[in-house]
Amino acid sequence: MRTLAVVGGGAVGLAVAWQAAEAGWTVTVFDPAPGSGASHVAGGMLAPLSEGWPGEDRVLEFGAAALAAWPAFGERLRAVTGESVFVADETLTVALDGADAADLRTVADWLAGFGHDLRVLDRAGVRALEPALARTVRAGLRADTELAVDNRRVLRALRAGCAAAGVEMRAQAVAALDELPHDRIVLAAGARSAELWPGLPVRPVKGEILRLRHRPGVRPAPSRVIRARVHGRPVYLVPREDGLVLGATQYEAGFDTTVTVGGVRDLIADAETILPGIGEYELAEANAGSRPGTPDNLPLLGPLDERVVAATGHGRNGMLTLALTATLVPALLEDESPALAELAAPQRFPALRLSSSGGVR
Ligand SMILES: Cc1cc2nc3c(=O)[nH]c(=O)nc-3n(C[C@H](O)[C@H](O)[C@H](O)COP(=O)(O)OP(=O)(O)OC[C@H]3O[C@@H](n4cnc5c(N)ncnc54)[C@H](O)[C@@H]3O)c2cc1C
């Protein structure tokens, strides 16, 4: 039997473990606290188009392919637990001033060049779609193919999938990869991956995020993802069964995951600017997590040496790109070279020293 160690039991590690076990590997996941990292706090937007920006063509290509893979991947997750992981099926990005409205048109024109036709809405068009939004909203960009997931349902389904496929879970931190006796190793330790492979260009990017619960008598929450920039800060609302997820701040703050008063204040104030009724919700949870960021906002998927394959660096898009990572990494373990994996190959960073096997060190 071929043995595989997966280091890290976040959404990425669990998805790879599940798919590799189904492909015939004997898999052990090492994680002292599986599902407790960024995957637990995430918003769950699958928004490669709305988050796109001219120049980030490769990020768009990878993200759009991941979005296209989600319906089938979501169906496989639903088959495991019986519950759908999807919570919305489109995104509306709104503009509060003329400069933001011009940006929406810039993004729409750029996306059209890649065959993604998104509609720019005027004030009346936005109000017709989402009457609860503030009257100050003057334009919107509607991405009617962008889904959103409940990240915690995704984690539940991945855990169930792993259990059904016979994956062994070990509640143990790995101190050094060369202590593991397995035939192959997948490094999926999220923002902490560089601790196990020094020089890997993955760094923590802190994000604070809130969960708001709907209360009886309060106007219903929007049924689609709403995104905006307020005072230059991004803010988004992602539907949940019982309310909304409101995210997210973004700082370079090392591995700090405290929730600050300033972060919560800004999130609520910015959200209230686009959805005035939000003060009526119950503030159910405040969390912070570390996004595993890379310099070019693409993940790192591919061999680091003869034994170790990276599945990390998913940054602010790990829930989105999960659907692709779950198929690309098992293929890489079979020494195949799927075309899309090229975009995420670790070797794209020339500063990394190549090992004798063509991996990076
Ligand atoms: C506030 C916030 C909002 C986000 N919103 C979105 C969103 O809307 N859409 C989207 O697509 N993405 C979003 N993301 C990004 C997404 O959450 C991440 O990209 C994704 O969860 C990364 O998954 P992961 O499994 O690589 O990392 P993690 O979920 O962080 O898991 C890593 C795991 O590795 C384990 N580990 C670490 N070191 C070791 C070790 N030495 N030995 C064993 N195990 C170890 C940890 O315990 C942890 O469980 C958001 C992130 C944050 C923080």
TrEMBL record:
Pathway: Cofactor biosynthesis; thiamine diphosphate biosynthesis. One of its GO terms (molecular function) is glycine oxidase activity. It is an enzyme of class 1 (oxidoreductase). Its EC number is 1.4.3.19. It catalyses: glycine + O2 + H2O = glyoxylate + H2O2 + NH4(+). Residues 4-329 form the FAD dependent oxidoreductase domain. It holds the Pfam family DAO. SUPFAM superfamilies: FAD-linked reductases, C-terminal domain, FAD/NAD(P)-binding domain. One of its GO terms (cellular component) is cytoplasm. Keywords: Oxidoreductase, Thiamine biosynthesis. One of its GO terms (biological process) is thiamine biosynthetic process. It comes from the Bacteria. PANTHER family: GLYCINE OXIDASE, SARCOSINE DEHYDROGENASE-RELATED. This is glycine oxidase. It comes from Nocardia neocaledoniensis.
